[in-house]
Design goal:
The radius of gyration is 19 Å and the shape is globular. The chain has helices spanning 2-19, 34-50, 66-78, 97-104, 131-147, 152-160, 167-172, 183-190, 218-224; strands spanning 22-29, 54-60, 83-87, 93-95, 107-110, 115-117, 164-166, 178-179, 194-197, 200-203, 210-213. By secondary structure, it is an alpha/beta fold. The strands form three sheets. The chain has a six-stranded parallel β-sheet with strand order 8-5-3-2-1-11, sandwiched between helices. It is built from nine helices and eleven strands.
Length: 225
């Protein structure tokens, strides 16, 4: 009887693992640059190949290059798997270009003690960009926020007025969807969540997901640094 019970337990465990979802995670800290673009694109390709429930991008950035930001936004929109941006860890921010990237995600999550916003464009000297550039950035962020059904008015204020808000304020304004301290808490809160995709809605199954971390390659780290 014990052997039969043990065998049943093994079979149940194997079945549970087979049914468990998979989640890929990439972590990016620092300026948004070409290496950030390469890393995110590689992460998305890997997630698509793995057939995961979602890709989580843990992000902490003060901003960066406009072209790199736009390349990342386009890659997120084109992703065949849902993309979650998690502003992480505590004390992190998704500022400037990071705001655009976060708002482009299917799901936005923020750790306690984080903030998002202050997205007014600046030139290479750090001075406020021209009205033409600002208008272009404002239109871009309105489009992104509108696609993801987020607060378009606040998104534009983040560009034109450098508005920045905390994670709790972002939750109240429908800028973020989830407040989670770490990956385990994030996966619990993502589980069962419906996500709008171009081909219709999908429901995330992440409660018992197997997590695979995709680190930056050495050359990506070197050129990013």
């Amino acid at each position: 009887m014990k052997k039969i019970t043990f065998l049943a337990a093994v079979l149940l465990s194997a079945a549970s693992l087979a049914d468990a979802g998979r989640v890929d995670v990439i972590r990016f800290t620092g300026m948004i640059d070409p290496m950030a673009t390469q890393y995110v694109k590689r992460g998305i390709r890997a997630a698509e190949t793995d057939g995961v429930e979602c890709l989580v991008i843990q992000l902490d950035t003060p901003g960066g290059l406009d072209k790199s930001m736009r390349d990342i936004v386009q890659s997120i929109f084109a992703s065949k798997v849902p993309v979650v941006v998690h502003v992480y860890p505590k004390g992190a921010r998704a500022a400037s270009a990071g705001t655009f990237i976060a708002l482009a995600a299917d799901v936005v999550a923020m750790s306690p003690g984080t903030n998002i916003g202050a997205a007014h464009p600046v030139d290479m000297s750090g001075k406020s960009a021209s009205e033409k550039v600002t208008n272009d950035a404002a239109a871009t962020i309105r489009s992104i926020a509108g696609k993801r059904k987020r607060d378009v008015k606040w998104a534009e204020q983040a560009v034109r007025e450098s508005k920045s808000i905390t994670e709790t304020e972002a939750l109240a304004k429908n800028i973020t969807d989830i407040i989670a301290s770490d990956i385990p808490e994030l996966l619990l809160k993502l589980d069962g969540r419906p996500v709008d995709r171009d081909k219709g809605k999908t429901t995330l199954k992440t409660k018992d997901a197997v997590v695979k971390e995709i680190p930056m390659k050495l050359n990506e780290k070197f050129f990013h640094a």
